[in-house]
């Protein structure tokens, strides 16, 4: 038996990847533009790489850049898995419902009661949505519409190696699905998700109130908000069609997105695309201040919590 000190301790393995090569891989991953999750920012710190990437073609870009200094793909994959903050290639496909997820993790009386009410609200608003949609098909003076802002569309969007490292331009796509009626419309019924910053706020209410008082024969505008985490809107199917059609296409300027959206559906008719200009964008804060005079209390003197509102009527 050997009783001496083990001299192997503290020495790196003979086949260990050199530290400077590991740092080069990390620097490479740092250089690629990333975005946080559109839906799960509160629950996850994970960052997402462009959806047209994979580990294989990411490694291909890296190996061409480093040539003989490149590590093998297994080491590259290991470093990317250990990268902080965590990286992912594919974006989440749909919203995550915090209430449903919590109910799955916790089995308590309180969580069950909240979950039950949550499910009831979800079913009620879905039934109301279907009813309003059917009514709009029957009644000539009623139009149904849903709307949503799509996740940020990025430019440049192509398979060129250098594009992955380029600064990206953000393109916003606000989508409206409607029942396409012509004639004298008196009642407009909107459905939207529960995003307070975008829709469920005083500025939007002021704009709807202004429209009722100034636009054509419109007498009533309703906007109802889906239950959080279950915003199943027709506008989302349009977004899915756009994202599917975008795959394997090269987009360099904002007008390319306009052409892409117009072409991504042909039947029963193509999507109509309106390209906004700077003078199409309005600041509604001043309008809201003038029109919405009572913001914190209703006519009965009760406190109004805008974040909890499910139905606005103008």
From TrEMBL:
It comes from the Eukaryota. This is Uncharacterized protein.
């Amino acid at each position: 038996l050997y009783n001496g000190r083990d001299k192997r301790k503290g020495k790196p393995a003979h086949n260990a990847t050199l530290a400077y090569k590991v740092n080069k891989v990390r620097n490479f991953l740092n250089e690629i533009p990333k975005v946080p999750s559109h839906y799960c920012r509160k629950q996850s710190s994970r960052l997402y790489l462009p959806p047209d990437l994979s580990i294989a073609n990411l490694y291909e870009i890296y190996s061409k850049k480093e040539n003989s200094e490149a590590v093998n793909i297994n080491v590259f994959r290991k470093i990317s898995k250990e990268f902080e903050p965590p990286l992912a290639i594919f974006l989440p496909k749909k919203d995550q419902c915090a209430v449903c997820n919590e109910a799955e993790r916790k089995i308590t009386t309180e969580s069950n009661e909240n979950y039950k009410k949550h499910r009831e609200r979800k079913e009620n608003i879905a039934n109301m949505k279907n009813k309003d949609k059917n009514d709009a098909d029957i009644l000539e003076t009623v139009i149904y519409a849903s709307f949503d802002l799509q996740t940020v569309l990025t430019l440049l969007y192509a398979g060129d190696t250098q594009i992955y490292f380029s600064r990206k331009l953000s393109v916003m796509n606000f989508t409206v699905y409607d029942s396409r009626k012509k004639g004298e419309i008196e009642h407009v019924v909107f459905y939207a998700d529960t995003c307070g910053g975008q829709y469920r706020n005083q500025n939007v209410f002021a704009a709807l109130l202004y429209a009722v008082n100034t636009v054509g024969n419109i007498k009533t505008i309703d906007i109802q908000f889906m239950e959080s985490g279950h915003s199943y809107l027709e506008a989302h199917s349009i977004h899915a069609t756009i994202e599917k059609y975008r795959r394997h296409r090269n987009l360099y300027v904002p007008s390319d997105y306009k052409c892409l959206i117009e072409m991504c559906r042909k039947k029963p008719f193509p999507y109509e695309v309106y390209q906004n200009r700077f003078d199409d964008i309005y600041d509604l804060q001043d309008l809201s201040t003038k029109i919405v005079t009572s913001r914190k209390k209703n006519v009965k003197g009760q406190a109004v919590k805008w974040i909890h509102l499910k139905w606005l009527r103008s």
